[in-house]
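We emphasize that the prediction below concerns an isolated chain of 294 residues; any contacts that depend on oligomerization or on bound cofactors are therefore not represented. The input was used exactly as deposited, without trimming of termini.
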Amino acid sequence: MNANNFRLPARRLATVVAATALAAGPASLAHATEDQGRASAVVLRTGLNVSLLNKSVNVPLEVALNEVQAPRSAEQTALTAKLDGVDGGKPFTVLDAEVAESKATVTEGRAEASTTLAHAKLHVPGLPLLSLIEVEQVTSKATCVAGEKPVATADLLGSVTALGKKVTLTPSGPVEVKVPAVGEVTLALSQTETTTRTAAATALELKVSVNPLDLNVAEVEGTVTLAKATCEAPEEQSATPPAPASDVKPQGVQAEAGLAETGGSSTTPYLAGGALALLAAGAGAVALARRGKS
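Result of the prediction step, given as a token string:
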């Protein structure tokens, strides 16, 4: 009587443990091989520090316009970026553009991001009438496909004006623009970078130092990024297909020899773990049954 009471729960326990071990194997493998990839895009990002009233007040000027990220595909098309608290309490327009688009998409085996900025004017506090920079059109694109080399491109179309001066940008290096009693801007054109799985493209990178001494209103220092796109390729799927039924071998010496020749499949550790759990539970049940009889 006591033996039956112990034996049935032991069998159930062994079944549950074995089933859990077998189920966890494929799930763990699927999670380990699942990587959808990533993509991000932003039209404008500033990392500036604004000193007001002879540096008595420091205000960080951190603005991001149309910043999107995937795996969840996204798109934004806002045309202006404003900041409060740096212009006598009134909203201050940092960027104004006719076109400002950013996209980030991730599909099966592919991650891609792109930006477009056209007819844009960037302003900083202290220079309400003079644009820090004006661009006709800049674009960037990053494409990452599983198993292929990532691609990053950035283009400048049309003219660029910095602190009221026309600027000719070349890939050879950054260009400095200095205006007495106003400040200086250093512009770097079309920066791209790729690795085996990632890509990044930036249309324009600016280093800013503005101090309009005649106005004695503000000093602005930091960096500005225009039209940046990045991506990371999804991992290639490398799941081992199940063996056909015709390859199943009988139990015994031949089966063990075949396993030694071909090697176990990706689920072998989990099958072995389930079998060991079943044997352990069975042994426990037998021990308990013997104690009950005694």
